[in-house]
Write a structure and sequence with these properties.
By secondary structure, the protein is mostly helical. The chain has one domain. It contains 10 helices and no strands. The chain is globular, with a radius of gyration of 18 Å.
Length: 211
């Protein structure tokens, strides 16, 4: 049993490439994390958004590990637990959307002018419906049946390595728009649009099944 737990499976180059592409596509496409990073890049700049990016990348890697080690069995055994988690996640996303919508201009000194911290971004993964769908999909498709700890670590590691740069693209893009959005009216309109998109991103995610 100990040998099995410590065993590192042999992944072929083709499997690792497929996993990396899966991680890239699911990490770089629009979703709550990326929409918030785009807004963060605009409102706070790339450098101040780095803790947010790291929290997403590392926090999601930890989630993949937990899912791979059997956490989803709890939700499958008790569906109400997962339903409650999605409700909490929806409420938290609604609060974040309001926070984005009411953000002031950079340098305004408003109390809300603080980027998300590393711990907050990492914790957010656990109430992010898209993150759960991604984590379960990664384990189901790329970890063998009765996966060893080594296999789960590889899947999580690939996601951290690929997902980190993927989400950083959104913060970098937002940072490049800071000059154009220096006008208070443009920034206000952008923040309102981002808040609306963040709320809309919940629609397909809240109806997704865990497995």
């Amino acid at each position: 049993m100990i040998a099995r737990v410590a065993e590192i499976p042999a992944y072929s180059a083709e499997t690792l490439l497929a996993l990396a592409l899966y991680a890239l596509v699911t990490s770089i496409t629009p979703g709550p994390n990326n929409l918030m990073l785009l807004s963060s890049g605009i409102n706070y700049g790339f450098r101040r958004s780095i803790p947010h990016m790291l929290g997403i990348s590392i926090g999601f890697g930890v989630m993949v590990l937990a899912v791979g080690l059997g956490l989803t069995r709890l939700f499958l055994a008790y569906p109400a637990t997962y339903a409650a988690l999605r409700i909490v996640g929806a409420g938290y996303l609604a609060w974040l959307a309001w926070r984005i919508a009411t953000s002031g201009a950079p340098g305004s000194g408003a109390p809300s002018r603080r980027p998300m911290t590393f711990l907050a971004a990492a914790a957010f993964q656990w109430v992010n419906p898209k993150a759960w769908v991604m984590a379960v999909g990664a384990i189901a498709n790329y970890a063998p049946v009765e996966a060893t700890v080594g296999a789960v670590v590889i899947v999580a590691g690939v996601y951290v390595l690929v997902g980190g740069p993927s989400v950083a693209v959104w913060a970098a893009f937002g940072s490049t728009l800071r000059t154009w959005l220096a006008d208070a009216r443009r920034l206000r309109a952008f923040n309102l649009a981002m808040a609306a998109l963040l709320l809309l991103s919940l629609c397909p995610l809240l109806t997704a099944e865990l497995g």
